[in-house]
Automatic annotation (TrEMBL):
Classification via SUPFAM superfamilies: lambda repressor-like DNA-binding domains
Record GO cellular component, one term: cytosol
Organism name: Rhodopila globiformis (Rhodopseudomonas globiformis)
Keyword field contains Secreted: no
UniProt KW DNA-binding keyword: yes
GO molecular function terms attached to this record: DNA binding; DNA-binding transcription factor activity
Name of the protein described by the UniProt record: Transcriptional regulator
Amino acid sequence: MDLKEVMAINLRRLRHAKGMTQEELAERAGLSARYIGAIERARVSASVTVLGQVADALEIEAGDLVRRTRPTGQTTRSAEPQR
C-alpha cells in the first residue's frame, strides 16, 4: 500500500472520529470539499503543505495521516536476522 492510500484511509478514519463531514473539514483547512474527497479516494497526492493544513484542521499531528497502522493483534517483527 502506498502512502497515498495510507493517507486516504487515515484521513477518512480520523475525520469520521471527529464527526466531521468533508465539507466541514474542507472549510477548516481552506480547501475544497472536492479536493478532500479526492484525497480520501487516493486519486491525488497531497503536498506537505496540504498535509499540514488538513492535520491542523483535524487538530492532529501531520504524521498521524501518513502513519501505517497494523490490524489489531498483529505484532511487529524484529529487524534482527533469524538464526
